[in-house]
Amino acid sequence: MTEKRTIKAGLLGLGTVGSGVYKLMERQQKEMVHKVGASLCIEKILVHNMDKKREGVDMSLLTDKWTDIIDNDEIEIVIEVMGGIEPARTMILEALNSGKNVVTANKDLVAEYGKELLDAAENNGVDFLFEAAVAGGIPIIRPLKQCLASNEIDEVIGIVNGTTNYILTKMFEDGMDFKEALAKATELGYAEADPTADIQGLDAGRKVAIMASIAFHSRVVFPDVYTEGITGITARDIQYAREFGSVIKLLGVAHNTEDGIEVGVYPMLLPKDHPLASVRDSFNAVFVHGDAVDDAMFYGRGAGELPTASAIMGDVIDVARDIQYHCTGRISCTCYRKTPIKRFDDVKNKFFLRMQVDNKPGVLAAIASVFGVHKVSISKVVQKIITDGTAELVIVTEAVKEYHMQDALEHLKDMETTREISSIIREY
């Protein structure tokens, strides 16, 4: 029978997520010996401010010295929940190179420096796990790496930012405008004081880079991801989406094609019958298509203290099991291919275009001619007369290369009869 021992962990950070990890570790204390085959405990917690009162936390565990963790040979797992690139990157590398296993929730770090960290883990025969870096409590990294490992995956699309999904839900269901919905999201704590990373698609972009890398076995980094936010979405766009039997969602989209990997984050009109269309408020979901599994969707809480802590602790328990049975480093970097990243200009998308034009004969024909010149096929036109000689025109295109659409838009902007290009949104 395997001897029961205690596996010790060091926790870097005691903010919202770090507190959740501490609570969950305490809550599960009696179960650990059965789940892991050993006891599991937090030995030290690295904090910035030693004087801050922390209710429910054993204050003797706190330290503001990294050396108390890195130089402690009894600590076998380092849990990083500080966020940001530095000093997290340096600390994680030091931990891996000293033979400690690492669990992180740091999407920024994994999206930019994942290869370096995974290589360090592999070179030292230790685990580096990051389930919580994407979609909070929803299991997606492990399913892609393990459960779906026999699949050739060609599509991963998802709602991976709860703030923007909440905002768009409020705009669609309650008729709020963008600013009002953002204020509500901030009030409820879904949006940060500076919501730029969320509403501009940057947060989702980092998560999509990570998912695409794992799903397609080829390195995708954040700068490869085309990002576009939701600040331009208006109540009028929502109204048209409803008329067309669609919703608007900020989607992370990754496709593995014969010509390379397509990867981006942008608002899309999504048919109401698509599984992702019913994902509301701050919930997240990831939709995967594989050649064997066909369609699969993972749905749940994408952020928050305990949902994120759930994903972190799942990784910690996995690492502890590997330590207990002497098999750390089992699953390291799975990016064994070198698939090119497709230029976003060459990606094909359908478009919803809303514009204000002079309300007079010949304008629609002239616009159709411009689209024809730039190889853009039209699938639907809706014309509504407004006022002051202006007509609102909505055009939905067939799938067209991004650069053809951009050329057509530049041409349209130069026409005297065009008063405004109001919205350009991609359509699924």
UniProtKB/TrEMBL annotation:
Key words, A-Z: Amino-acid biosynthesis, Metal-binding, Methionine biosynthesis, NAD, NADP, Oxidoreductase, Sodium, Threonine biosynthesis
Sequence positions that bind L-homoserine: E192
Assigned EC number: 1.1.1.3
Protein name per Swiss-Prot or TrEMBL: Homoserine dehydrogenase
Residue ranges occupied by any ACT domain in the UniProt entry: 352-426
PROSITE patterns xrefs: ACT, HOMOSER_DHGENASE
BP-aspect Gene Ontology terms: methionine biosynthetic process; threonine biosynthetic process
Residue sites binding NADPH per the record: K107
Reaction equation(s) it catalyzes: L-homoserine + NADP(+) = L-aspartate 4-semialdehyde + NADPH + H(+)
High-level lineage: Bacteria, Bacillati, Bacillota, Clostridia, Lachnospirales
Cofactor(s) required, per the database record: a metal cation
Entries under InterPro entries matching the protein: ACT-like_dom_sf (IPR045865), ACT_dom (IPR002912), Asp/hSer_DH_NAD-bd (IPR005106), HDH (IPR016204), HDH_cat (IPR001342), HDH_CS (IPR019811), NAD(P)-bd_dom_sf (IPR036291)
Pathway entry: Amino-acid biosynthesis; L-threonine biosynthesis; L-threonine from L-aspartate: step 3/5; Amino-acid biosynthesis; L-methionine biosynthesis via de novo pathway; L-homoserine from L-aspartate: step 3/3
Gene3D superfamilies associated with the record: 3.30.70.260, Dihydrodipicolinate Reductase, domain 2, NAD(P)-binding Rossmann-like Domain
Entry similarity comment: Belongs to the homoserine dehydrogenase family.
